[in-house]
Design goal:
Blueprint: E1 23-24, H1 30-40, E2 44-49, E3 52-58, H2 59-67, H3 77-80, E4 87-88, H4 94-104, E5 108-113, E6 116-122, H5 123-136
Parallel strand pairs: 1-2, 4-5
Antiparallel strand pairs: 2-3, 5-6
Length: 137
């Protein structure tokens, strides 16, 4: 049996955040965004401008746009991006980030260090830690 350290909900979110974020340009078509999500097997991308991200687009955002009648060839990423981002810092506990998700009713949180995005945490990442704790606790 290995002596790896177990990650708990009290640990910093930096331990579970995903780095190397997928990005799209604000002017990219929704079809192109959807194709990138499928090709990369991911559920969210950052809408990126030279100064940093201006929003996120999730699968849910694309489904909402589809239901609203969006033209996926003509409409741009920035048109459907969630721009009011919920953010955390790398040292915030996994539990506190989970609470932020519940309070804001979001499934993804951008992790910032200063003015720079350094990672992304999904509700699945948080849930994995909580379930592992529940099984051993």
């Amino acid at each position: 049996m290995s002596m790896t350290t177990k990650i708990t909900s009290a640990d910093p979110v930096a331990k579970i955040m995903v780095e190397g974020l997928s990005e799209v340009d604000p002017g990219q078509s929704l079809r192109s965004v959807a194709q990138q999500l499928v090709a990369d097997e991911i559920g969210v991308v950052f809408v990126q401008i030279p100064g940093g991200p201006v929003g996120l687009i999730s699968e849910r955002d694309l489904v909402n746009a589809l239901v609203d009648g969006a033209d996926f060839n003509a409409q741009q990423a920035i048109d459907v991006a969630t721009t009011d981002l919920v953010t955390a810092q790398p040292g915030d506990s996994i539990a506190s980030v989970g609470h932020m998700m519940l309070e804001a009713w979001v499934r993804h949180i951008a992790v910032y260090e200063g003015d720079t995005v350094v990672g992304l945490v999904s509700i699945r990442d948080v849930l994995a830690v909580l379930l592992a704790s529940a099984q051993t606790g």
